[in-house]
Amino acid sequence: MINLVIADNDSSSQENLRNLLKNYENIQVVGSYQNPASVLEEIKSLNPHVLITDISMPEMDGLELAQKVTALLPNIYVVFLTEYEKFALNAFELGVFDYILKPATQERFNKLIQRITLDMAARKRGDAGIAISKRNLFKDYIAVSKGESIIVINKAEILYCCASNKKTHIYVNDGCFECRYTLEHLEEILKASFLRCHRSYLVNMQFIREISPLFNQTYLIRLKNSRAEIPVSRNYAIRIKECLHF
Q1: Per-residue confidence of the chain (246 residues) as pLDDT tens digits?
Q2: Residue 27 and residue 73 share a domain
């Protein structure tokens, strides 16, 4: 049996969802909430396998709810059910299991339930590591937009990031993409091998080829296989010297 919790402040949407779920003998709705705060209060005691949540809700949106729920129950399947396509990037980056647009159809839910059932079966067979790694696959990637398309970039392929004129850009070997994140947010997301070298630049240390001194304790970074030249301000020079031991 798959235990499932619903979070949606629209009672009619909840009712439509419950009607769809009645058609599955292996699904049991153990909780249905209009207030996301109530979900957080009871989610651990319910210990469901699946959370289906709307995104646009008062006080706490579904994105924040998903983050908090997965912190409490790391292996839960989070599914967004929403009217809006615009949150797809956010959902992608959170690593949610599925993203369904309202009004949901029975056919679309057939696919969802089948995917969840197969994933749970893989865990029971002892393939839990494989199942979980597939769900966490997107954590190594970042999604940016290009026109109406979503571009998926492996974090390890990012050369550097730059903020200018209230916009942030991500640079890879085959192009530059505008990103909705601030540089501070990118610094938090990328972490690991990325280093802040200037208030407007974040560089991937794996691609550093040369660091040349300029003047007044500033430097210039040149990258492998790139003509880019990244400034190092005096304020960040000490941190880079400590990281690279020079």
Answers
A1: 999 999 999 999 999 999 999 999 999 999 999 999 999 999 999 999 999 999 989 888 998 999 899 889 988 999 999 988 777 767 776 778 888 888 889 999 999 999 899 888 887 776 555 444 445 545 677 777 777 667 778 888 999 999 988 889 999 988 888 887 888 888 888 877 899 999 999 999 999 999 999 888 899 999 998 888 999 998 888 887 887 777
A2: yes
To the question of pTM greater than 0.70 for the whole model, the response is no
Distance CA 8, CA 102 (A): 12
Residue numbers of the domain that contains 183: 146-244
**CATH (domain of 42):** 3.40.50.2300
Number of domains in the chain: 2
225: left (phi over 0), alpha (psi -120 to 50) or beta: left
Q: How far apart are CA 4 and CA 73, in angstroms?
A: 13
